[in-house]
Amino acid sequence: MRSTMMDIPLTVASIMRYGTTVFGNREVVTFTGDGTRRRSYEEAGRRAARLANALRGLGVDADQRVATFMWNNAEHLEAYLTVPSMGAVLHTLNIRLDPAEIGYIAGHAEDYAVIVDSSLAARFAEVLPHMHGIKHVIVTGDPAVGADFPGVTVHSYEDLLAAESESFAWPEVDERAAAAMCYTSGTTGRSKGVAYSHRSTYLHSLGPCLGNAFGLNERDSVLPVVPMFHANAWGLAYAGLLAGADLVMPDRYLQPGPLVKLIESERVTVAGGVPTIWLGVLAHIREAGGDLSSLRLVIAGGSAVPRSLQAAFQSELGVRILQAWGMTETSPLGSVANPPPGVTEEEAWRYREGQGRLICTLEGRLVGDGGAVLPSDGEAVGEIEVRGPWVTGSYYKDDDPGKFHDGWLRTGDVGTMDERGFIQLTDRAKDVIKSGGEWISSMMLENILMSHPDVAESAVIGIADEKWGERPLAAVVLRPGADVSAEKLREFLSGHVPRWQVPERWCFIAEIPKTSVGKFSKRQMREAYHHGDYEIVEAR
Amino acid sequence: MRSTMMDIPLTVASIMRYGTTVFGNREVVTFTGDGTRRRSYEEAGRRAARLANALRGLGVDADQRVATFMWNNAEHLEAYLTVPSMGAVLHTLNIRLDPAEIGYIAGHAEDYAVIVDSSLAARFAEVLPHMHGIKHVIVTGDPAVGADFPGVTVHSYEDLLAAESESFAWPEVDERAAAAMCYTSGTTGRSKGVAYSHRSTYLHSLGPCLGNAFGLNERDSVLPVVPMFHANAWGLAYAGLLAGADLVMPDRYLQPGPLVKLIESERVTVAGGVPTIWLGVLAHIREAGGDLSSLRLVIAGGSAVPRSLQAAFQSELGVRILQAWGMTETSPLGSVANPPPGVTEEEAWRYREGQGRLICTLEGRLVGDGGAVLPSDGEAVGEIEVRGPWVTGSYYKDDDPGKFHDGWLRTGDVGTMDERGFIQLTDRAKDVIKSGGEWISSMMLENILMSHPDVAESAVIGIADEKWGERPLAAVVLRPGADVSAEKLREFLSGHVPRWQVPERWCFIAEIPKTSVGKFSKRQMREAYHHGDYEIVEAR
């Protein structure tokens, strides 16, 4: 029996319509380092229509890909609104990748035009020679910048908009059509493309508004430190419009000092970023002071969020950090680590150190080596598989069936899940260390080491061992002025994990190599180790 | 370009899967008058599987209609979970309608089986003779009740469940298939059926969880006083499962005393019901005392919520009332009257007296007499039209094109809408009074009269007038012991509205007639007036 309900598609255009009217007086605020540029959502909507007219004029029609090479700012939000709403596909390029890789990605996605921040013109000039299908480059800000880019037609974003009408006939779009693309920042192998649909984008944008997630509402002022060029800024941009929250955009000012200044001056209530950002903010405030009292919530994710960081934010700054987990393939909001009601403070910490439960609409399960589903009992260790309406079921022009299993996405994350769906990750599948037939969690060793007062950062990789197959190698970055031996760190670890898990091999280095999105790059560490770049200290 | 996202349907089965696992330890609590029956969501899920097996055994397959004739209780929640998830269609019957009308509705919907609360057996016995297609009656509670219902096979709900397995192969269901039906309680004309889809139900269930709506979360304990037999208990039942909130069910104990007792003992945080319920609760507490301090939010809707009631709850009980607007055709959540941030207290009151803004996914517009779209400027008065994925686009087996307009639902509500979408209703379209070519808002007159200390209730209807075409007739129910003249009430009104809007004709009656869902029945008032049942006082 068919229902009688209207068949109204869930589209980015409907996010735009809602946000720019009902919350038309709320603002997207872009940091300029010493001040802000402010634009109401209503104005952003009018500019989106101008941009749509301009892109049509440049030949963007049907489902062509329009890329962005941009920081988080008002113009990037306008691209977020315009490109999917006109039926084209927004392709956010990760500005931090290697130029050749960006060129490969742009070619694979068949990007036709790209919008570039003028402050990124120098970086883009290195990328452009690797891009072969791009016809038009549109530069925001200073109209003089980039005029000499070879082989493409260069336009000024503001000049284009100024010449166009504020009225555009937004088309009806199928909710299952692609709205946006993002490529994985694979720590191994080539980047692969995920094409989000209008439907998945709309549903995912409701996620941050749910009471069990971040509860975004029109009393919020939201700072996405996490980039819009990767994994949709965790959904905060579109959710800001749906919730009527102001969006406070850091542009290129991602250092701790400017971020603290921005939070203070804009009275930001919710901010999202990777743990290293918040480590930096904490260190900055310890040194230089700062008032984060406007924040009701800091969302941290992208890599495990150490308890020590969460505890320091709570006790020193009075701010709650909420750990979230997800990946490009999950749009990316997956789980949030809210402890359940009615637990003791210490139990709550145990939940907050884990990855929490999947947000509603998503489902998870645990799968063992042979593909068998394992019990969700908090004991069995396996790979987390997820499915849901905002999870990808394939990659663009590249099936990679090894990443999928009977309709579920294999996340590549290994850990436990309890009967209420609480996830506790112990490793990336490819980072798991198998020593004498038993698994050692590199993440657990890292988290414990990073709770040592002398340790700034630590990453653990598995290295070949004649006797045990594999053993952990602990790489440690000490805090400035600190001096602690491998023996002392072994002792410290022994208080927390079984003796046989404690590494014998250590290296003290200046910095852990990071991926383009700020995660520890264990691939680079393994390469450095194999090249003999690390000075190994043996300790037993 | 197709997206790469998984094609996962939004279904009631996925609400059930999520709620009964992730929040499997949360409870549905059913009031028994002097205590409670408690059942975890996990147990409710197991019982849903038993019920599904039982219904299959009785011949329920494909999209057959399974009706309920029940109060809000654990078993009704089990029917909510089971029937749509097995692919059949849940048809909630309004137990308060006239037996013949219920029979008509059950026949129109082609109900095959019905689940009946044993406490409603006597009422159901009056309805059954009017029901012609029903094959099976399943009675909850006391297994001896209803055994003698003629012409149908009668089963005990608990006996059926006890005989079945806890495992059921829930089918894959198209998200656009019907999940549930509800008939309008038309104050005029025959009831018409709305068939909610799985998709509309899922999306609507997210509504109460949004930060700008009720922000339901797992710290909540939710009391739906509003019946599950009409308009989905405002979405609170399914939303409770998605949010992991306990559901506190009042069963048949809807009097103020038991409700206050239940709120106190279960520490209810969010409760929803029509204004008359909360007027009763307020009067009860003024008389007998009571502690509502656990409530963070009372949702009131179904008819306009007077400022005097909201103010009394706030000042006397410390509880915020949030006005919500909707109708059977909108699932029913439409708008909520949260004032925007940054307004003065007096401005906030003005917003709280109105109907607020439509929840995201819904869109509204204002349409004038000739069908022209009017400006949303807070001045123009017209009919509110809405559309969205949880709004009906037709009626079951009865098109009634007069209710739809270019893909929008004509709500039959008349009022203004400002540029930010704030709705201020002035009347039902059919209750509008047109006097000398100008409109008089019956709702405004009623609200002002009900703020008079001597007035308990007031309703205003339009009556024929030789000179002006129509004039208002004010019907007033005085508070016990109060004595106030029509002249005094005219004086009181004159302080608030233009002199020409003040009624000349008054009647003082014992009670305003109500519809089955507790709204003023102006149809009955007009009939009573035409039959000469009202003693009219003229005052000038």
Concise structural overview:
The structure is a homodimer of 540-residue chains. Chain A is built from 15 helices and 28 strands.
What does this molecule look like?
- The structure is a homodimer of 540-residue chains.
- By secondary structure, chain A is an alpha/beta fold.
- Chain A is built from 15 helices and 28 strands.
- In chain A, strand 10 (221-224), helix 8 and strand 11 form a beta-alpha-beta unit.
- The relative contact order of chain A is 0.08.
What is the radius of gyration of chain A computed over CA atoms, rounded to a whole number of angstroms?
23 Å
Distance between the termini of chain A: 71 Å
Q: What portion of residues of chain A belong to β-strands?
A: 25-35%
How is the largest sheet of chain A built, in terms of strand order?
2-1-11-10-12-13-14-15-16
- Count of separate DSSP helical elements of chain A: 15
Q: Show the largest interface.
A: A-B, 69 and 69 residues
Uncertain segments of chain A of ≥5 residues (pLDDT<50)? Answer: none
Number of strands of chain A: 28
Largest sheet of chain A: 9 strands, mixed
Structural class of chain A: alpha/beta
General shape of chain A: globular
Oligomer: homodimer
Helix content of chain A: 25-40%
Mean pLDDT of chain A: 95
